[in-house]
Amino acid sequence: MNEMKRDMIRIQELVGSAFGQTGALVALSDGGHMNPKKLQKTLEQTMEHFESAALELRRLCEQYSPGTGGFSKKSVLPAMDVTGSVEEFGYGWLHITLNTLLPHCRYQNPNWLADTISRLLDGYVACGKELPFYRRALLVIDEHTAIEGRHIFDQDNKGWKAVSNAIKGRVVPDDDQHTLAVALLSTKVQERECCHITLLHQADAHDFFAAHSSDYALGNFYSGHWC
Fold it and tell me: CA 29 → CA 44, 135, 148, 208, distances in Å?
């Protein structure tokens, strides 16, 4: 069996294995009353299977993707914008939008989140743009959600550390408690749920929060219309 065929079979196995994990959820529901902790752990194990499969699928698909590094030299089609986007707005602030909410991380590491952010930054640089570098930065993570009372997803349990780990050494210095301040926000919305991640100089914190949530705030902050 050649290497490519073996890897295509591996892709099929990954998808099948992830789907098979959903059987544990069905088994839980058959018993009527479910233990909340057991349900939470099983849900996260299911997510972990799918996320691990997604990470390996990314690697395999890139390995065989036509283009540089692939088996031919054809142009690579632009990736679908299904995970998020990166832009610069304000006063040299970096804004990342994730088309999902932060994952819960009590029982698993949010590897998918760190990998996704790294790839979004890679794509931004690949377009010929330069990432800013902040010696003293403020990281603002603002979830927009319509879910009432995400108690299981309180700030202690969210996988926000994957965000800071993905940018350290690349957008901010690595591992220094004085160089990166973090603010976790939640905004109740009725429209599409997402997570806004903004990096800015710590000295600009006043300007950020004045434009974001003070009496002077106007409309949708992340539209950039206030700039």
Answer: 16, 50, 23, 46
β-sheet bridge partners, residue 128: none
CA distance 49 to 41: 12
Rounded to two decimals, the pTM is 0.71
Q: What is the pLDDT of residues 22-61, one digit of tens each?
A: 887 777 777 666 777 777 778 877 877 787 777 777 777 7
Q: How far apart are CA 146 and CA 33, in angstroms?
A: 27
- Give the span between the Cα atoms of 162 and 102, in whole angstroms: 10
Dump the DSSP string for 147-213: -S--GGG-TTTB-THHHHHHHBTTTB-SS-TTTEEEEEEEEE-SS--EEEEEEEEGGGHHHHHHHHH
Separation in Å, CA 8 to CA 22, 70, 108, 173: 22, 15, 27, 39
Residues, the chain: 227
What H or E segment, with its residue span, contains residue 46?
A: helix 36-64
